Amino acid sequence: MASAGDNKTSRSDYASTKPQADGAWVASVEPESPADDAGIEPGMRICTVNGVELHDIIDWRWEADGDVAELEVYVPEDDEVYAATLYREPGQDWGLDFTDVLFDGIRTCVNACQFCFMAMLPEDARASLTLRDDDYRLSFLQGNFVTLTNVGDEEVQRIIDCRLEPMNVSLHAISPEVRRTLIGRNAQRGIDVLERLLDAGIEVHGQIVLCAGINDGEELRRTLDWVESKPSFTSMALVPMGYTKYSRRFSESFSDDREASRDVVRLVEPYQRRARESLGITRFQLSDEFYLDAELPIPPASTYDGYPQFYDGIGMLRSFLDETRELSHTRRDELMAITDGLLRDGLKVRILGGEAALGVLRDFCDTWSRVCGLETPLFEPFAIRNDYYGGDVNVTGLIVSCDLLGQLPADLAGKLIVVPDLMFNFDKVTLDGDTQERMVAELERRGAKVIVAQTTPSCMVDALGECFGF
């Protein structure tokens, strides 16, 4: 089965506030499609395909792979199950979408990870944020990282038989005693399953969450030695453990220790060099935080092998910097036209982001000003400090409404505020439970013009251009 998607373009969102559907419920049907021709309508539930019960979207894709599909369909209005046959031309889509990709519920975590972010949330966090999923299907479908500790033998065989790859696997450490310390009593099951997948040639993107004094240093070296011997590992991400003010176990991490961060960079560099020499890829990739915390330059794009772990914070800063350089040449006329519109309307742009993004946002603003020859800057980066979570949380995706509204001034007249869409989930709700609509209304009440956009250079230019009809 083909890969589930390109991680650099598929956004990873936190949980929806809506309850998960139970069963393969039809959300929409394309007019004049095979599903429409067979009488399938939104609100119906597909029970079986070719006699096989559906547990998830993978079953649907696998079983409905031919040009004919024999369905059993439950119709709520009649409280009856009917047979339906779908026919399609080669290459034609069936023409229906489901309300969810999992039909039988999310597989939850059986671990007790020391560094679990869920254990560091405020007590009043909504239930959807405290759901600890560890579902191998979401690893394939959405790029979630899983430990494999709750995967049964039949599920292992399914991954192999259906070639559900790449799988995104949290490894953390290889020594049994260190894994038990980090993950809990089920730690060995994760390694046993991972070994079977690797032996079967399943492609794996790995992740190590580094906890100072636990799985760094010599233990990290042992883990990387083990990964180096496994050719099915396409990439291995190393990310620092993050903590909030609610953590009972941690009160510091690599973000608080420049030399410790530099030690990690130095330890990993020989593995990167050997991988480039033998495989032509860097393979072992450090998260952007390590370079920021170590106060070292962000590596070139070639280091990131096409950004397979982009949404794990691997290469985001480099991609942003390079995209800024490119658009300063390729979209110069648009930058000039938008600038003219801002000057005409008397607006200055304030781009919001997490503290970790301040440097690249400033580079974007400075580049735009330089391209347009502005003596008085029209563009200003504004970092939102994360007081809600505290600790060392500083990324854009975890900005909350109360911090944003609390740190922006009461008078925003003459400001065009660019709000990052990454701070909202699929239902346009923030982590602290505010809605996008209410938050934007409050900013507008203060006199601001507001756009919500993906805060990449190109997307921000697109969004700003739309404001002025370009």
Question: Which tags fit this structure?
Answer:
470 residues; Pdz3 Domain; 3 domains; 14 strands; six-stranded antiparallel sheet
Description:
The protein has helices at 34-37, 57-63, 127-130, 136-142, 153-161, 176-183, 187-199, 217-228, 258-279, 288-294, 316-330, 332-345, 358-371, 401-407, 436-445, 457-467; strands at residues 24-29, 45-49, 52-53, 68-75, 80-87, 96-98, 167-170, 204-210, 233-240, 284-286, 348-354, 379-384, 415-420, 449-453. Helix 8 (217-228) packs parallel to helix 9 (258-279), helix 9 (258-279) packs across helix 10 and helix 11 packs parallel to helix 13. Helix 8 links the parallel strand 8 (204-210) and strand 9. The model is unreliable at 1-17 (pLDDT under 50). It has 16 helices and 14 strands. The strands form three sheets. Strands 1, 2, 3, 4, 5 and 6 form a six-stranded antiparallel sheet that branches. Strands 7-8-9-10 form a four-stranded parallel sheet. It has a four-stranded parallel sheet with strand order 12-11-13-14, sandwiched between helices. The longest helix is centred in the middle third of the chain and has 22 residues, at 258-279. The radius of gyration is 24 Å and the shape is globular. It has three domains: 24-98, Pdz3 Domain, CATH 2.30.42.10; 117-313, pyruvate-formate lyase- activating enzyme; 320-467, Rossmann fold (3-Layer(aba) Sandwich), CATH 3.40.50. The chain is of the alpha/beta class and 470 residues long. Helix content is 35%, strand content 17%.
